[in-house]
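Bench notes, afternoon.
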Amino acid sequence: MSETPPNTLQYRFDGPEDAPVLILGPSLGTTWHMWDRQVPELAQQWRVFRFDLPGHGGAPARPAGSVAELAARLLATLDALGVQRFGYAGCALGGAIGIELALRHPARMASLALVAASPRFGTADEFRQRGVVVRTNGLDPIARSAPDRWFTGGFAAAQPAITEWAVQMVRTTDPGCYIAACEALAAFDVRPELGRVGVPTLVLVGSDDQVTGPAEARTLVAGIPDARLAVVPGASHLVPVEQPAAVTDLLVHHFSTAWQQPFDTGQTVLPAPAPAAAVPAAQPQAAPVAEIAPAAVPARSEGAPDRYRTGLKIRREVLGDAHVDRTLAQTDAFSGDFQQFVTRYSWGEVWDRPGLDRRTRSCITLTALVAGGHLEELASHTRAALRNGLTPDEIKEVLLHTAVYCGVPAANSAFRVAQQVIREETTPAG
């Protein structure tokens, strides 16, 4: 494997050098080996290009904090190889990258398949919480729970080798890159833009996917013009691994029949890197069930003044959607002007200034709240500090410092509040 430049991704090719390029994008916590069972058949017709996310599968640990940045690194990799036009299939985070490419670079994409994907992945709170858990406890808790998220119970019990492969794959991911990918998913929301996806699109989902299931798939189908939906029975989130034959058949059919012209065959390719640990063999899988189903198109958000819009975005990123939604739900005619003021000036002006990073602002805010005895606000801003990248040990140091300058009684009360919040936020789910 040649050295990977900073703005590109680790990759490999399979298949004929003169064939159209088909890209397979991985899910968070996986490597390109999640597509191993699809490659032999796909590589008969296409030049299959697989890539690893930063810090995954031994790739250089250069975190990318947004889906747009991941898409830009992928395009930089393809540009360096001379690949101009391609088909794309991506799973979960890989699917988000595919939507980003279809929206921002439609001329490059010939056809699109979205596997276990969504226009918005859960809530921003869920992924920022996952980042807090990893920052505090490392990746082991996430790795141990991966089979429950990725596979049906029957498959995990019947395929212990694949289950252990999944655990080790997450465990060996770079924690900083995993956290950055969580931040990327937390900020990803293209619901209002789905109507601009103009390439032939297949939306593929496992019937038992509890992460991004059939409901999210139908939202994609409703929003993307002429998209088709395929529901694969007996599969959860990592459907290409759990039902490889069904997924392969669907991808072959889609990319064989829905490839927009023109196609540019003038490509230069580099040698493929040596293979790493592959997916263990599994039992024969069930056939897919495909359907087309309508769903309600999510409403577009109302316009708002720029500073308010910016402030609300930052407020949600720092305090979390649940906290902000709860606060705004309690707003009435009496308190509405105050909430507008706080959002516009505190969050849209001060928190948006470039002079201090958010970690530093969290340190200052915690200190000020301890000094003022504002323990209710201290709880929400302890959560915010964890989201902004402070570790529990760093929060402890901040509170120790306040004991000197704000008084021991104030710091004592603050420690009780912060201790409870940290326990809640850093204890892995399940």
